[in-house]
Amino acid sequence: MQKYVLVTGGAGYIGSHACKALKAAGYVPVTFDNLETGWEEAVKFGPFERGDLLDRARLDEVFAKWNPIAVMHFAALSQVGEAVAEPGRYWRVNVGGSLNLIEAAIAAGCLDFVFSSTCATYGDQDGVVLDENTQQTPSNPYGSSKRAIEEMLRDFGVAHGLRHVIYRYFNVAGADPAGEVGEFHQPETHLIPLMLDVVSGKRPALTLFGTDYPTPDGTCVRDYVHVSDLVDAHVLGLRWLEDGKGSRVFCLGTGAGFSVREVVSEARAVTNQDVPMNIGPRRPGDAVSLVSGSARAVKELGWAPSRSSMQQMISDAWRWHENGHYNK
After folding, report:
1. Cα–Cα dist 149/96, whole Å
2. How far apart are CA 277 and CA 254, in angstroms?
3. Residues 154, 23, 46: CA angle, nearest 5 degrees
4. d(C-alpha 313, C-alpha 325), whole Å
5. Active site residue 326
6. CATH of 4-173+224-252, one of 3.30.2350.10, 3.40.50.2300, 3.40.50.720, 3.40.190.10
7. pTM passes above 0.70
8. Measured by CB atoms within 10 angstroms of the end CB, which terminus of the chain is less buried, N or C?
9. Which pLDDT tens digit goes with each residue over 61-75?
10. Is 294 helix (H, G, I), strand (E, B) or coil?
11. What is the residue extent of each domain of the chain?
């Protein structure tokens, strides 16, 4: 009997990698995506259902058609600067869409739910290693919207028996080592692909958004995790729920923080190319430092982030960057 898993945002960067991991683990990923930021070319590992989370009737159709055993929920708006400028859109899409999805899942009797949350729910807590017990004080509407969804999952768990695994993860980087899927956004806002655009001559320079942060070199510090390691944890979380272990929150990162300048330095070493840079102002809502404490995932899930060295993440991203892109 085939086990279908509904993957919202399965045409996006992380979602497409998750679909590959699910297929390799014996599941059938059903991608649900409106293609606003995703790519139909990235849907390679299972069926595709085009739809929007704000369309409850469409969600009900898809649940009835596939009868999934679980939901893996990646679909969201995720740009901090945009969220600060347009909070209503983030609350409407992220929270309203997730509410539709949760209610549709419960109505269909699909009670296992793996949720892609974020370290942005913690806000700016400089010098603190962020783990599952750290207080959540989001500093922008994106983080606030994700925290609200976490709270919804807990409430629906109490009321309807919805079982959930919540992942708060840090900066995701790298690409599928086999090159089948990768990271490609339009417009691009993520540091590593922007940097590789500069290396390959597609952009004139990388802009450093703020060099006056209270860090050793003045630039923001982030914890990076390889996308393949990240989605491996999602499969482990799905199995956790299938085994009846109950709802749980996990942080996913490496516990090592890299400043923007340190990432640039590593890219120079990997590509053997220079990375010209300009200095820009800080972006609203950006935290100084976000570093993960992920001991729970390692201990309880048996998670092993084996590809998450900065060298490996940039090397895999560079290979994809040179060879793979999607087209609308």
Report:
1. 9
2. 27
3. 90
4. 17
5. no
6. 3.40.50.720
7. yes
8. N
9. 999 999 999 999 999
10. coil
11. 4-173+224-252, 191-222+255-323
